[in-house]
Design brief:
The complex is a heterodimer of chains A (about 270) and B (about 375).
Chain A lengths: L7 E10 L2 E11 L4 E5 L6 H9 L6 E6 L2 E2 L5 H7 E4 L11 H6 L16 H11 L15 H14 L4 E5 L7 H13 L3 E5 L3 H7 L2 E6 L2 E6 L1 H4 L2 H8 L2 E6 L6 E6 L5 H9 L1
Parallel strand pairs in A: 3-8, 3-9, 6-7, 7-8
Antiparallel strand pairs in A: 1-2, 1-4, 4-5, 9-10, 11-12
Chain B lengths: L27 H21 L7 H11 L7 H36 L11 H15 L9 H23 L5 H25 L3 H11 L12 H15 L2 H8 L2 H6 L4 H23 L5 H13 L3 H25 L8 H19 L9
The chains are: A alpha/beta (about 270), B mainly alpha (about 375).
């Protein structure tokens, strides 16, 4: 595909929704072609922050720049050519076939009355091939499993052919094999990728940089080995971890232990 | 991390291209020309039906004579060209317009139960028309008075709904459904009040007949306005088919794809108000066509608007022409209001179609 990776930087991003400040001045910097992970507990503002980076939601303060343009000052259409956002759960219209859904990704590149350019089919087939869904391209969206739907949503984002790909929990609903395949794919793309991830170990394995969000504040940002440490995880997630080194790869992994011997008690406490 | 190859490597064995359309879905290259033929044949047959049944060949000769063919008898020409043709053409235009408006409104509010009368425009038109019938308003406008009153009412209702929705933060699907429904109820109440206030039972009868829809008012000099409006506005929404597809996928996806959602929704509202207002003004509030035809169309051709819009227009046009044939021939010499026929024929047909095939719309069941 033709998209060139674009650098994305954000500084002091503040997002307010109904007078509640969800994101409280967060910075992030993704070099062109880098893979940046955003981790944090539930309700830490990951999705809201990603939407702000994508230009979908308004920001109260701060700036998001992609290439050398301010995202929130761009026209919707040129923004959609620079940034492609795939939400956690997209609703697919029924009666749409898989390839028709992925073709939606070509919308910013076409006039609304266009009946499809000559490269449209090639781009769509390639995106479907990359997520391993090419055999399903004539299936109805209704007939797919949750994981298959996720991969089609990702293919829509790929077909959009933007320099920055922002993914909210792309590994949700995927079995472990497809999680690993998806992360391999993300690494191989010539795009800048910013994604929210739940699995800290996967984030450490695949990301060039990791942002740890806690309660709308950027708690730490940097190389995964510097950021995803036992002390940060203990502070932000309230979980005790131990670093174990894989004797084959030499890579360090975080192993989790509940801090409290009565897990249900811990849960109700953290819920408060 | 270990690379897990396999499924994500570039595809080497693409399925053969003949696997074009999925099971049960027909290719638009076949469906659209076929529907066009059906529509033309329906129109010709409809010209043959009436108080005097004519052979279709006579109809063809009569139409042909108007375009330089051999002349036919004066009475045949008067029946086919003078009386029935404007009515059939109006039926084609209104049927197409209602079906297109239904397809667009269902996408705009992402609701399977939406129909063109949801916007409150039709109830506004009924207030205007009722005022004309019961109070003799605009009597100076002659045969145009009813349409004129309905148009004013439709316009007023459209402005009212648009203003309320916009003041509350913009046209979102839920807000438009609520505002339109509530406004429609209020306006229908006003129309009912106007009917009750009058002592003229003849007027009440005409109001009821008008509310249920009829093409009886068709004439050549009243034909051009609805035909042009339906044609231009259908072309306008067709030019937006790519954005309508994106809008149908939900506001998040549409925004991510760079669609100017707010502007698009406002434009669609304006188009719908003009389309529905015009059709209600000439033919009354015909129920069911705008609700059912878009669903039937999607079951045949899928959900992409590039095919749904022209296919729905053709199916709606043919359907309404046949509905009108039933309306004017089945209880001769009495004419049945169109909504009675669309309800009696359409509802069981719709339920049957929905039951026969797995069909879902807008992510809901």
């Amino acid at each position: 595909m033709s998209a060139r990776a674009l650098a994305l930087t954000a500084s002091g991003v503040v997002v307010r929704i109904d007078r509640r400040t969800i994101v409280k001045g967060v910075d992030i910097a993704a070099d062109a072609g880098a893979v940046v992970g955003v981790v944090g507990p539930n309700g830490s503002g990951k999705s809201t922050f990603l939407r702000a980076l994508s230009g979908l939601g308004p920001i109260a303060d701060g700036d998001v720049r992609v290439g050398d343009e301010s995202v929130h000052a761009m026209s919707a259409r040129s923004r959609a050519k620079a940034i492609s956002f795939v939400a956690q759960e997209e609703q697919s219209p029924a009666d749409l076939l898989v390839h028709e859904y992925v073709t939606l990704g070509r919308t910013p590149h076409a006039k609304p009355w266009s009946l499809g350019g000559k490269d449209e089919k090639a781009v769509v087939d390639r995106a479907l091939g990359e997520v391993g869904m090419i055999e399903h391209r004539f299936s109805s969206m209704d007939t797919l499993s949750g994981g298959e739907r996720r991969r089609v949503f990702l293919a829509r984002g790929l077909a959009q052919d933007a320099g920055v790909l922002i993914l909210d929990e792309p590994t949700n609903h995927l079995d472990i094999r497809h999680q690993l395949e998806l992360l391999d794919l993300v690494r191989s793309l010539d795009r800048t990728v910013i994604m929210a991830l739940h699995d800290l170990d996967l984030a450490a394995a695949v990301c060039d940089r990791v942002l740890v969000l806690a309660d709308g504040v950027g708690h730490a940002f940097g190389h995964p080995s510097d950021v995803l440490t036992t002390s940060v995880v203990a502070t932000v997630f309230g979980v005790e971890t131990f670093a174990l080194v894989n004797p084959v790869t030499g890579r360090s992994h975080l192993v989790f232990e509940s801090r409290n011997p009565q897990p249900q008690h811990t849960f109700s406490e953290s819920a408060l | 991390m270990n690379a897990v190859g396999g499924a994500l490597s570039p595809p080497t064995h693409l399925p053969s291209p003949k696997a074009g359309a999925p099971r049960g879905r027909l290719s638009p290259g076949i469906v659209l020309p076929a529907l066009l033929v059906v529509t033309v044949l329906s129109a010709l047959c409809a010209l043959a039906f009436g108080s005097e049944m004519l052979p279709v060949s006579t109809v063809v000769d009569a139409v042909h004579s108007r375009f330089g063919g051999a002349p036919v008898t004066r009475s045949e020409l008067a029946i086919v060209w003078g009386i029935r043709a404007p009515r059939v053409l109006l039926g084609l235009a209104v049927g197409a317009g209602l079906a297109v408006a239904g397809a667009v409104v269902q996408t705009l509010v992402r609701n399977a139960l939406a129909d063109p009368h949801l916007l409150g425009v039709s109830s506004g038109a009924s207030v205007g028309a009722t005022a004309v019938i019961t109070t003799g308003l605009f009597a100076g406008a002659g045969v145009w008075a009813l349409s004129f009153g309905a148009m004013i009412g439709a316009l007023g209702a459209a402005i009212l709904v648009f203003t309320i929705a916009t003041l509350q933060g913009g046209i979102t699907p839920l807000r438009l459904v609520l505002t339109g429904t509530v406004t429609a109820s209020a306006l229908s109440a006003i129309a009912s009040f106007l009917v009750l206030r009058t002592n003229d039972s003849q007027a009440a009868q005409s109001v009821l007949f008008w509310l249920l829809g009829s093409l009886a008012g068709a004439s050549w000099d009243k034909l051009w306005a609805p035909v042009i409006v339906v044609f231009l506005l259908t072309a306008a929404v067709f030019a937006l088919h790519g954005w309508l597809d994106a809008l149908a996928a939900g506001p998040d996806v549409a925004a991510s794809l760079g669609i100017p959602i707010r502007t698009l929704r406002n434009v669609l509202f304006g188009v719908l108000a003009a389309l529905v207002g015009t059709m209600v003004a000439v033919s009354g509030a015909i129920a069911f066509v705008g609700l059912v035809i878009p669903h039937v169309t999607r079951m045949i051709v899928g959900a992409r608007h590039r095919v749904v819009l022209p296919a729905a227009a053709l199916i709606g046009a043919s359907f309404l022409v046949w509905v009108d044939v039933v309306a004017r021939t089945s209880l001769r010499p009495t004419e049945i209001p169109l909504s009675v026929v669309t309800g009696v024929i359409g509802a069981p047909l719709f339920l049957l179609l929905l039951g026969r095939r797995r069909y879902r719309f807008g992510g809901s069941s």
